[in-house]
Amino acid sequence: MLFNSWVFLAFFAATFAAYWVTSRKLVLQNLVLLIASYVFYGWWNWKFLGLIVLSTAIDYVAGLKIADEEDDAKRKRWVAVSCVSNLGILAAFKYFDFFLGSLGEALAMVGMEAAMPSLEWVLPVGISFYTFQSMSYSIDVYRGETKASRNPLDFAVYVAFFPQLVAGPIERSSRFLPQVRQKRSITTAGLEAGLFLVLWGLFKKVVVADNAAVIANAVFDDAASHQGMELWLGALAFTIQIYGDFSGYSDIARGLAKTMGFELMVNFKLPYFAVSPSDFWRRWHVSLSSWLRDYLYIPLGGNRGGAVGTYRNLFLTMLLGGLWHGAAWHFVLWGAYHGTLLIVFRLAGAVRGPWLPRKTLWADLLRMSVMFPLTVGGWVLFRVQTMADLQAFLDGAFTSTEAEVGLTAVILAALWAPVLLMQLAQAISDDLLVALRLPVLLRGVLYGLFIACCVAFATGESIEFIYFQF
Amino acid sequence: MLERGYEERTTPETGPLRVLVVIVVMALTVLAAEWGVGRFLDTKGTNLGYVYIAHKWRVLSKLDEPVDWVMLGDSSGSQGFDPAVLEDRLDKSAINLGTIGNYGLSDDLWMLEEYIDRFGPPEKVLLIHVYDVWHRRLKANLIGRIPRKWVLSDETAETYDFDEEERRDIFLNRYVRLFAERTSLRKSIEYAYLRMVSDEEELAEIRRKDRALPIEDPELMDSGFVRMCGAATKALKRDARGHMRFVRKRRPRISKDNQAALKAIAELAREHEFEVYVVNGPVYERLRIKPEFKKYFDRQVKNLRRFIKDYPEVHVVDSALGFDGDKLQNVDHITCEATDEYTQWVIDRVLAVDAGEE
Questions:
Q1: Exposed, middle or buried by CB within 10 Å (0-12, 13-18, 19+), for A147?
Q2: Which of A60, A285, B73, B357 pairs with B12 at a CA distance of 20 to 30 A?
Q3: Using CB atoms and an 8 Å cut-off, which of residues 175-194 of chain A contact chain B?
Q4: Residues 168-197 of chain B whose Cβ lies under 8 A from any Cβ of chain A
């Protein structure tokens, strides 16, 4: 069930009505949320509901055991049970075929042909998100950062909350579980903020991302037939697409949650305004990058092991972060690319000389104009499907273009202009909800325009969000 | 500044009334956008079919006095029959209400009913259609573009045997053009941009390459006549091949919808005592002389005559006027240089019928 579909609209209307009706009884309200969340997930494929229930059950028990156990070794064992189970589910469904397939190819390259087994299982939607969310709970309980949930209903809602179940934000238990436990109220402020976020998110998805996708797909699906500027415009189109798609999803998720009185993490903070790779990762998919920082980078040693150790940890974290996005080498390469960027910029910072600009607006603009093309380059690695596609892209990228690209550039500019305008307002006001400061009539007009554009510029059937596949 | 914009700071000052105002203004904005887009597509759209439909119904609604001849039919007649020529020759007034072929005769009937309701019967009614219109069924989505209340009625759906999906299409085309015509809207915006940035030569080249764009911008006259100039040889040849395939494969017939509409028009003619002339639109001469075409055409005329044999008020002209490629935009749409010749020919045929020569 996609957010940008009529089915979802009907589903949410029914869920919201039930949620409202049960607002006096928290248990009933949470039950409504859980049932709705399982229906939402089961709508795609009910057979995989078992995986969510399994992951929920394991971490619920693990959390209780970790909280109640006094022996640290046993507590660690339960953390291991949680991690191994969640990562095991993830490995079986997402990485098994990839690793064995790659091993088979590597063996074949050295002349050792071997028939590798493959599972060929369908990848359950959102598996990377909810396993990470569920697993982090056990770790947080062990660390003492969150209290173990003693109510299975509350915990099940935390794992399966439908607005963020399949594509995040990956919520932390310390932030989200208290919201599940507390009585929530539906307020007009929450409804309006939610309305804005849902409509703005839909606009970014349906108008910006899906239309940019038409250009990006035309280029990347047949990179060998395109040259120079055509390829770079394709890369730029994907840059716009992935931001519109993913930040759009996050905004809709956050908006839906707000209407029901929940607060989800801000997942995108004007990422293309980033002035350095580390700044980019503070702004892009914040819930994942902070997850990787807290549960991978810091446990690996963070920056406590000297320069070399820090660089190694950064690189490994980004490499695994790339792999999290998908079982394919181009994602690994994308992770490695960002790991390298982080290291290079860190090195440059360490040897800061007079040639490096100081922090002024102009200096930031200069740094942004360096960072943005590097980000676009990274998206090329992300978007290609195979290494052969990447080769084709690189072969043509630095040749001259014969085709007329003016109209494509204008379409991309037109798609990006409203997003840029909103972002400039957000940056200048230092407020992501700046649109809510508009007079009430203007807000109505703005929302009406979002709807009209979504209706008029929809590309056709509802298109799945990119991050569903991760 | 670039490192700002990290947080959500505003909690909107709001209350039930404010939320209500936001929702009402939002709904009004959507309605305004729907209306504005409709106007844009009706006047500047690249889908000329919809431009013509809107134009012809506008001409009919603005008509303030009766005319002698009412021309109905498809775009071949819309672009072929010029009321000014009739006026010059016979001092008779006329109105050109030809729209597009995919309506078949259905919108001929609706327009005629509208005309008679307001002005009484005209002296003569011309039905100018291309030979391959007669077999076509009415497309549901087109009904939505007719500016009349009854298009969504159960009776209409029953008459045309529309299923649920077709009724949905009618609704969308009537009330949600933002969605139903979004492809046209995109193309029209793109075209408007290209017109802005291209010189005439470049624009002609773009139009030549992109078949979704009109060959040129039509001149919409107050009489309903659509003036289009400039031949299109390449498009003509492609179109002619398609027509040859058509006449080879198909047997001539009159669709259920067209039979119903023609019968209703004939009944009106009998009731209000006016004459109806069924005339073929202009046609590419090289196609007209092909034996396969002649065979198809003659059989179609026979079918029509058989069908209206009980209505002496309805006459079927049994010939077609051919044109060379330099006067055509496709097989059945003439350029402005040929409209005088075609209109004169139509008048000749009507007069010949009246004189009992045809």
A1: middle
A2: A285
A3: 188-189, 191-193
A4: 176, 178-179, 182, 185-186, 190, 193-194, 197
Whether residue B194 and residue A407 make contact (CB cut-off 8 A), yes or no, is yes
Q: Is the CB of residue B116 less than 8 Å from the CB of residue B65?
A: no
The residue from A226, A285, A325, A330 that is catalytic is: A325
CA distance B143 to chain A (A): 20
Contact between B12 and A361 using a beta-carbon 8 Å cutoff? no
Residue from A75, A70, A84 nearest A142 by CA: A75
Helices (H), A351-439: 361-383, 387-397, 406-429
Strand partners, B322: B283
Using the CB atoms, write b or e for B260-282: b if 16+ within 10 Å.
Answer: bbbbbbbebbeeeebbbbbbbbb
Nearest in space to B346 (alpha carbons), one of B315, B325, B304? B315
State how far residue B5 is from chain A, nearest Cα, in angstroms.
4
Q: How far is CA B215 from the centre of its chain?
A: 16
Q: What are phi and psi for residue B276, nearest 5 degrees?
A: -120, 135
The terminus-to-terminus CA distance of chain A in angstroms comes to: 16
CA atoms of B331 and B291, how far apart (whole Å): 16
Partners of residue B330 on adjacent β-strands: B333
Percent of chain B scoring above 90 in pLDDT? 56
Least confident interval from A4-18, A111-125, A346-360: A346-360
Sheet holding B94-96, edge to edge: B94-96, B69-73, B124-129, B275-280, B314-316
Q: For B105-158, write each residue's pLDDT tens digit.
A: 888 999 999 999 999 999 999 999 999 999 998 888 888 888 877 766 777 777
pTM of the model: 0.85
| Each residue's pLDDT tens digit, A131-148 | 899 999 999 999 999 999
B120 three-state secondary structure: coil
Residue bearing tokens 């919809």: B50
Which phi and psi (to 5°) does residue A285 adopt? 45, 55
Long-range contacts of B228-234 (CB under 8 A, 24+ apart): B228/B79, B228/B329, B228/B333, B228/B335, B228/B336, B229/B335, B229/B336, B229/B337, B230/B329, B230/B335, B231/B325, B231/B326, B231/B327, B231/B328, B231/B329, B231/B335, B232/B208, B232/B328, B232/B329, B232/B330, B233/B325, B233/B326, B234/B208
Please check whether residue A166 is in contact with residue A468, taking contact to mean a CB–CB distance below 8 angstroms: yes
Task: State whether residue A282 is helix, strand or coil.
Answer: helix
SS3 category, B356: coil
CA distance, residue A188 to nearest chain B CA (Å): 6
Q: Does the complex come out with an ipTM higher than 0.90?
A: no
Q: What is the CA radius of gyration of chain A?
A: 23
Three-state SS at B276:
strand
Q: CA A249 to CA A467: how far, in whole Å? A: 9
First to last CA, chain B: 84
Asked whether the beta carbons of residue A273 and residue B5 sit closer than 8 angstroms, the reply is yes
Residue A413 touches chain B, beta carbons under 8 Å: no
Degrees, nearest 5: CA angle A118-A123-A125 = 175
- Sequence-distant (≥ 6) Cβ neighbours of residue B163 within 8 angstroms: none
* B45 to chain A, closest Cα gap in Å: 14
Q: What is the 3-state secondary structure (H, E, C) of A66-122?
A: HHHCCCHHHHHHHHHHHHHHHHHHHHHHHHHHHHHHHHHHHHHHCCCCCCCCCCCCC
Q: What's the angle, vertex CA A384, arms to CA A468 and CA A132, rounded to 5? A: 35
Cβ contact, residue pair A193, B32, below 8 Å: no
With H, G, I as helix, E, B as strand and everything else as coil, classify residue B323.
strand
Q: What are phi and psi of A432, to 5 degrees?
A: -70, -20
A350 to chain B, any CB pair closer than 8 A? The answer is no
B176 contacts A455? CB cut-off 8 A: yes
CB B264 within 8 A of CB B313: no
